[in-house]
Design a protein that fits this description.
Blueprint: H1 2-17, E1 42-48, E2 53-61, E3 66-78, E4 82-99, E5 105-126, E6 129-151
Antiparallel strand pairs: 1-2, 2-3, 3-4, 4-5, 5-6
């Protein structure tokens, strides 16, 4: 009986603790997924959203199995209660190959390194206007390993009479 109460109490405590967490000031960027198939291919993409987040990706297939990628992002989001900013860039090198019975699958693995900086300013209203309650600044390094997989399915058009 005592064992059951202990287990239930421990489970309830761990469950309650799962709702408590730290706030992160790092926002991940959009990953690059070029899905290269042969040497000489180039991959360029960009993303912009309404929260003032701009992200760009570039990749080049250097050989039939080796590629390099580069990513960068910029965030500058300001509001009455919180200002958030982040700048980051990263680069990586990787291996890609086609495989499968019909050679219709692509596998990629990349490894790389990145640098960035983030800042958050919390503000509250006061009689003198907005005042800063808390400011956080962070410089960070990022080491990553990324795996991409794709499969293409070709459908033939059929005439219906």
């Amino acid at each position: 009986m005592k064992y059951n109460k202990f287990v239930y109490g421990l489970s309830a405590g761990l469950f309650a603790c799962s709702f408590y967490s730290c706030s992160s000031i790092y926002m991940p960027n959009v990953p690059s997924a070029p899905m290269f198939t042969e040497a000489g291919e180039v991959y360029v993409s960009g993303n912009i959203n309404t929260k003032a987040n701009v992200s760009a990706n570039l990749g080049v297939a250097v050989t039939d199995h080796i590629a390099v990628i580069a990513n960068g992002s910029y965030v500058d989001n300001r509001s009455n209660t919180k200002d958030y900013g982040q700048k980051m860039g990263e680069a990586g090198i990787g291996y890609f190959t086609r495989f499968g019975r019909k050679n219709n699958r692509v596998f990629e693995v990349y490894g790389g390194y990145g640098l960035g900086t983030s800042n958050v300013v919390d503000k509250r209203s006061s009689t003198m206007g907005q005042s800063i309650v808390e400011a956080q600044d962070m410089d960070f390094d990022k080491v990553f390993v990324q795996v991409n997989f794709s499969s293409e399915k070709k459908r033939c058009a059929q005439a219906v009479w």
